[in-house]
Amino acid sequence: MSLSSPRRYQLKKEGALAVKQGHPWIYRNKVSTAVETFASGQWLQLVGAQNEVLGFGIFEPEGLIAIRVLKQGDNPPDAAWVRGRIDKALKRRENLRKYTDGFRAVHGENDGLPGIVVDVYNETAVLQTYAASVDRLGRYVAAYVTRQLGLKNTVWKFPVKRKAVAADRVLRGHMPRETSIREGQLNFSIPVGEGQKSGAFLDLRGLRKWIATQKLDGKRVLNLFAYTGTLGFAAEAAKAREIWNVDISKGALDVAKRLHAKDPSRFRWVAADIFDWFPELPREEKFDLLIVDPPMMASKITQVDGALHAYRKLYREAILHVKPKGFLVAACCTARIPRKRFEETVGSVVGERFKKVTSIAPEDDHPVGFSEGDYLKILVFRAN
Ligand SMILES: C[S@@+](CC[C@H](N)C(=O)[O-])C[C@H]1O[C@@H](n2cnc3c(N)ncnc32)[C@H](O)[C@@H]1O
Q: Mean pLDDT in the chain?
């Protein structure tokens, strides 16, 4: 890979500060109109007020982030430097790979490669690029991961907001409709070709581990926003007697039904909008473990209040259905909602009857490299 010769760009004060502090983003409202002359994907040599070189980044003409910063200092990044970043990311996952063959190999800015995510499912690498400007670099990263790990397939899937302009495609081998991964004692089929995200929510592994080690023998579980039901299958491994999975996506539930349940009689599948379904659930339906894992609800700061309102509604309902000594799991993948605010919001709704017993930390393949990277909050409460 050659880096197209960087163009010099003088940052405004706040942009310069962001680079000095190691932040990977310079927002559009912090750059001068001079950037508009650059094409998407242009490498920039970022200089401060005294023309001193502060670092290097990639220009993006669309969206809130105008420049993704790759490197501080005055030496331009080259292919060897990019490979070094990937090698470091893979090294960090070495232990985890003894436990699973489904993991995030590159976690974007948190691994120093902004906008680029590579997930691995068994023999398939799935690349996702979050802006057109990093597409070229992303392909290089995915090819290198594929080679280093000796994988067969490399596919490129686009995040929801890019799907309208870019079609998913195969970069090497083929696009498996489904592939399987192992996670400790659990095995999952992953709908790579058709599923949400890259195929599965790898970031919930820590929660799956926690659930699988609870004493759920004979217990009832309600798994809200279940997708392909991986949390429910962790509950099955912990011997839960009855597991209800609810999701709006019939397709996701169909994948789960078709591929997973060892004992289908223990499962109930409900395709419904939870905001309509949950208030209708009879009060006498009580569960020993109730999981609430809604989708990302706010991409803009102006949507945060609406998202918190929706959470309050969900948890007001949820606490009515948790048995005494039962667990309530509250997950939030909305990066715009800071950890403290989420905890306060849920805490204020669940009240004195519930105590927070733990929170599930991110695993090694989801490192948190900067404040906005701390997107996933998972809290576990227990009823009196
Ligand atoms: C963060 S994912 C859940 C991942 C899941 N817990 C797992 O173990 O893989 C959010 C899920 O919410 C579902 N969803 C979004 N809006 C919904 C709604 N209004 N009612 C029910 N499900 C919804 C999506 O289809 C998606 O599967």
A: 95
Averaged over 16-28, what is the pLDDT?
Answer: 96
Structure tokens at 121: 């499912």
CATH topology of domain 79-179: Transcription Regulator spoIIAA (3.30.750)
> Does the CA dihedral 118-120-124-126 come out positive or negative?
negative
| Residue bearing the CA closest to ligand 1, atom 27 | 227
Percent of the chain whose predicted confidence (pLDDT) is above 70: 98
Ligand 1 atom 11 nearest Cα: 225
| Ligand 1 lined by 295 (C-beta under 6 Å) | yes
366: tokens are 């989801």
247, two tokens: 């999701």
The CATH architecture to which 201-383 belongs is 3-Layer(aba) Sandwich (3.40)
Ligand 1 mutation pick, 188, 204, 209, 247, max ligand atoms within 8 A of CB: 247
227 lines ligand 1 (CB under 6 A): yes
Query: What phi and psi, each to the nearest 5 degrees, are found at residue 68?
Result: -100, 120
Ranges of beta strands (E only) in 73-152 are: 102-107, 116-121, 124-129
